[in-house]
Write a structure and sequence with these properties.
By secondary structure, this protein is mainly α. It has one domain. It is 85% helix and 0% strand. Helix 2 packs antiparallel against helix 7, helix 3 runs antiparallel to helix 8 and helix 5 packs across helix 8.
Length: 278
Amino acid sequence: MRLPRTRQLLAWFFFYGVLLSGGPHAILIAMLALTWAVTATIAAFIGGLFVFRNRRHLHNILGLTAGVLIGAVAFDLLPEIFDTLSDLNQQPTFAMIGLVAGFLLFHIIEKGLALHRTHSSPETPTEQEQHGHHSVLATGLALCFHSLLDGIAIGVSFQADSRIGLAVAIAVVAHRFSDGINIVSLVLARHKSDLRLARIFLVAVALAPIVGVLLTLMLTISPAVLVIYLAFIAGFLLHIVASEVLPEAHGHHSTYLSIALTVVGVVFMFVVSHYASI
């Protein structure tokens, strides 16, 4: 009986792992990693569905999202970057260049497009929609890559040691709920009525960890490259918070509640990152 393509792909990855390790232990490790990746996927879907059901309170959700993203950079990405640099016995120069590049690249792109619109003829509604789609696409792809790295972290950690893998997996699952909230909130902030686009990005971000785990069966990522990439993502997220999320959350609909939720988001990520690292 012919297996569906998805099952054939999974079977091939498992077989590839067995070939690499020379025994069934690789299958056990792959199953553990995939189980946690699926759990992370479910957590992201729950976060995204939460936003869909509460669209009337989007500015409050964006306030929370801003705090979560700031906390993710301060208490998750940056500590991971500096810990990796310490393990590699390297200076943070190139990592910080990556962070600044992540911030400035998207800043230059966004402001360059804004200047182009200022010095050209007024945009038609179609051109405005295209610009919004480009911004959302860049944001969505960056968050997809970040989610992909979550899966790679799970897979690599389980291959190194099951206890390390368990700790990393719990940390990933703990913040995946907020990833689902973030991607849907950011898309709806630009396209409040485009639920289809938000669903597409939610599915992509949610499934990315599974793809990341599968890739660890056939790819090896240098820690030196990974740390620069993490810094680039940190810079990009800071730009998104400063230019998109905070202005939208605290612009026309700013309330004491949305301000408080921003602080709650930061505290939430601090607690998650602190206890996940214990």
